[in-house]
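Lecture 7 notes: from sequence to structure.
We start with the chain below.
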Amino acid sequence: MREIDKKRKHSSGEPSGIGLFAKKPRTSSELTDLEMRVVAGDSLTFLYIKGKGGEDKLYASGYNKYGQLGVGDERNRNKWTEVPFPKGFKIEKVIAGAEYSFLKGKGKDGEDKLYASGWNRYGQLGLCNTTDRNEWTEVPVPQGFTVEKVMAGLYHSWLKGKGKDGEDKLYACGWNYYGQLGLGNTTNRTEWTEVPVPQGFSVEKVIAGRSYTFLKGKGKNGQDKIFSCGANYGGQLGLGDTKDRTEWTEVPVPQGFSVEKVIAGRSHIFLKGKGEYGEDKVYASGTNRYGQLGLGDITDRNEWTEVPVPQGFSVEKVIAGDDHSILKGKGKDGEDKMYAAGYNTYGQLGLGHRWKTRKWTEVPVPQGFSVEKVIAGGFHSFIKGKGKDGEGKLYASGYNTYGQLGLGDTANRDKWTEVPIADLLKKLQEDVNDGKQEDDVSEASGSSGFSMGLNPRDCMF
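Predicted structure tokens for the same chain:
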């Protein structure tokens, strides 16, 4: 598919620094009264910094050919650039697809609002057309529908929420070539289309892979169930075959296994949960060309295969990128540990080299650094946590040709490199303390205008 699928053919840039960890000056940071969230898309990254004093800021870096950074132009960024919000809008969530993005939040009167920007060839922005946007454009939602969650796959999007009578509802739009919208056909949608779910099934989670979708929830008797649809060429639907599905198909899970989480990569999928005796277990299915399933080989799986984890290691989180996977958890003595497997041509595993690995390989982290979150983009990764003095820190590794690591250059990294966020945090902290908000913290971000509505002929719900 398009440019993003050509990335494996080249590996531009050189790793930074000498030794196991790349060094970068000017990067110590303090999150005194701030909360930072990292959202990684395919080749872009957002930093959402929430101030306790109410001064929220959004920054972006990376690929912007289609305006997916929402800064009013189509110019890539390799430095953190402040992203302007629509007037009166209070951000709650940032959602990144492959080459498009959503903002979910509240309007000036406390009403729910949704905005979108970026590539829209398949109608994935839900604007009832296929016109790209480089500014945040308000997304109309079906009348009487309250949005609770927004999910983005490769080029297909989902809304989960409540209807006017409080009933659960699902809507989808965008690319549907493989039937990933669960509508029983392969017709793309440019407007939000209600998605029927299996009778008696209550949806708890929607998990959007790149060209497939999973639903996790409860059956009519309260039992756990999962359903899938869409592309299945690598066996990623976990159905025991490689046949695509356009309708929701119930996914059989291993006997005695209780599913807690479903984690979707490009075309590989993990189930994390408990075995029949309450023990932690991980299962995988799908494409395994680069060893991303952590099974010690490069053979695809079309049925759930138990994933062996390092001895003495307890898995807390499973994180899936495009073709790479990371485990976060505890060692036998309760110490924090990370393991990785899969595609590593750009250094996205943070191992200090660029060789793929078929088995779980321990990931070294910077000395004195405690990992709180692991975030995987398409071919780049972040670790967020605390330094030895308790200060907030962010490190990155992997593909950086578009500047998505936010390091001020376009060189790939195979070592965890500290991301310079101190100036952003310091400025916002000053704004919180002073009770004021400054403009243009980083480089100029183009036009600050917004499309605050649509021609009624575009969307009619």
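Points to note: Residues 1-31, 436-457 have pLDDT under 50 and may be disordered. The first helix runs from residue 422 to 434.
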